[in-house]
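As agreed, record copied across for absentees:
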Amino acid sequence: RAVMEQDIVSLKEQLLVKENEIGILKDKLERLLKDSQCSTEAIDVQGTVTQLTPLQEKPFLSNEEIMRYSRQLLVPQFGVKGQQQLCRTSVLVVGCGGLGCPLAQYLAAAGVGRLGLLDYDEVELGNLHRQVLHGEDRKGKPKALSAAASLKRLNSAVDYVPYHMQLTPENALQLVQQYPCMDIIADCSDNVPTRYLVNDACVLAGKPLVSASALRMEGQLTVYNYCGGPCYRCLYPVPPPPETVTNCSDGGVLGVVPGIMGCFQALEILKIASGQEPGYRQQLLMFDAQEARFRTIKLRPRQAGCSVCGENPSVRALQDYEKFCGSAATDKCRRLCLLDQEQRISVQEYKEILEEHVPHLLLDVRPPVEVDICHLPVSINIPLASLEDKKAPHLQLLKEKIEESRQKTDRKSDFPVYVICKLGNDSQKAVQILQEMSGVELEHIAAKDIRGGLMAWAQKIDLSFPQY
């Protein structure tokens, strides 16, 4: 009986602990729900657009508005008239990432009337070095809602409309057209199909487009489709080959660079909204962060033969932009499939090769900067670029390593060389190069790609291996 009583007391204590934990979780949920209530006119996850009501004109500014915006009211080029125009302007921000966060932050602080915040993605730890509206407690939360919640705390007078959805040819024009007042579109995306999609929607709807990009330590910005200026297609009538395009997930970016370019986007939007002439209507701003230098390139005017804004446009409706560009409308690392299945092995199969001590060579074809982040100890590093150029020192190193490994076995057939990179894209290209070199520059080898690369190794084999 005494034992039973002790068990009952113990169970009651455990129950009390669980009740306290439930109470804490309920409080946290209530805070998150309250945090997310930024606009009753939002978008649902299925992507059904709710028509927005017109913004009311402001015949005069309130005392609170005068106090809040006093410093910019004192700027002669802006003044009270500029503030009134800004208060009845709507801006749709496509992408709440490295560009969209600082852009939206400064527009909200300046008192724009309405901010549409569109992003299909959720907050990840790898976003936080540049996407400054989000925080550690927002991991897994939709970026659009997270950005709106942060901005609401900055300026509750602005109407925030978060769109947690993918921009598509089916919904883009409806989104761009739905603002009844003068509105401006900001392209803060990080992929080519979305750039063409946003551009074409803006041209068809007659809206100005302020576009920026950032990669590594470089940035660009221009204003499209405004006062006779060119559109994106005027400059780039044909999309670049998909394999030549690099985004932040592939190539990296120093966080402050998109921050700077996002601020420039906000500046151009504020000038347009307040009736001023934007600085980059027919010019391209290029920023070199390494040298801390800016330079401006004059762009050609709107092209009469442009397929969307020209005199006889062939593009009269939005199309399949992923098919047009040959790539996905996402800023995630793309997955290529260049080899047959027999030319690839899984990370599990490679783990067995290691465990069985099968003689082979593991070739890591990532750039040295990525190898410094993490690598498998048994690998040798020869970057893909060196293989493509067939540089003599690297080719000689590869020959020596293959011969050194070959001497550990009596195998007379093709010697196995396994190639790895971050995700299994560059490694496939390297396998194709090695296959061409086999029996020519190199002795006969059997090159295979490790599917999914080091990130698959980290997720499926060694959970302690760094992911980046």
About this structure: The longest strand covers residues 209-215. Residues 341-461 form a domain with the Oxidized Rhodanese; domain 1 fold (CATH 3.40.250.10). The radius of gyration is 27 Å. The CA atoms of residues 197 and 321 lie 7 Å apart.
